[in-house]
Structure formats: structure tokens, C-alpha cells
Amino acid sequence: xxxxxPLTTISNDPLAITLFxxxxxxxxLARTKxxxxxxxxxxxxxxxxLNHFAHVGGEKTPAQLARMLHVTKAAMTNTMNxxxxxxxxxIRPDWDDARKKWLSISPAGQAARDQAxxxxxxxxxxxxxxVGAERIRQMLPIFRELREALKP
Length: 152
Hints:
The two termini are 29 Å apart. The chain has one domain (38-150): Winged helix-like DNA-binding domain superfamily/Winged helix DNA-binding domain (Arc Repressor Mutant, subunit A, Orthogonal Bundle), CATH 1.10.10.10.
């Protein structure tokens, strides 16, 4: 197009607008559905931290978790405090740097994560049934490409 900048072309592209609209709507619907299914008092941010630890184990600093989960340090501090108050994580000081803390999942946190997985599993089952496992397998590489393209 002569006389139009690439930004104007992209920002007016119905395909791009529709794509981001669908992503936003799917995100909102998924968060709402999952939040309602989680056990009493557990938020999605809590589940995300517990689920991360359940998969990778070990210890992480709040800053490391914030980067991995794409949240602010302040949001991670709030989540960390709530998880600690519930006994779901262990917090220990860094022996070399008193300003740092190290977090790990506790047995109670593992049990809470497992209970949350059981609560949300029917949602995943319904989605796989509705969309089809093979179609989801085909979509995953595209979602991963989008995620990589959106990284800062």
C-alpha cells in the first residue's frame, strides 16, 4: 500500500485484531472458570506457584518466580506471603545474601496443589472433549510461537 505505514496497516488488520480479541476473551473465560473451580481461598496466582514447584521442585527466589510467571515482584511478594501464611511454601534466607529469600513447596502446598488439580481436571477434560485432542496437539506449536513472539 503506497502512502500507508506498516503500523497503520497492521493496526487496521482485521485478522490481527480478531486474533488478539480471541486471545483476550479465551484468557478471561479460562481464568474465570478455573478461579471458580479452585478450592476455597486459592487463587490462580497461588496455583501457578504451587504447580511450578510441583513440576520442577527445588528452590526459587521471589524474583525468579516473578520473571517465570510474568508478574511484578510486588505481586509475587503478595502471593508468597499468602502461600506462606497458609503453610504452602517454605521460606528460608539466603545464607550468602541476607536480602534474598528462597522459596520451596511444603508438603501442605503439594497437597493443596494436588487438590486444586483434581478440582480443575473436569474443566480440562471437557475442553479436550469439545475441541479434540488432535486439534489441541496441532494448536500447541502455534500457541508456543505466539508466546515467544510476545516475550519482551
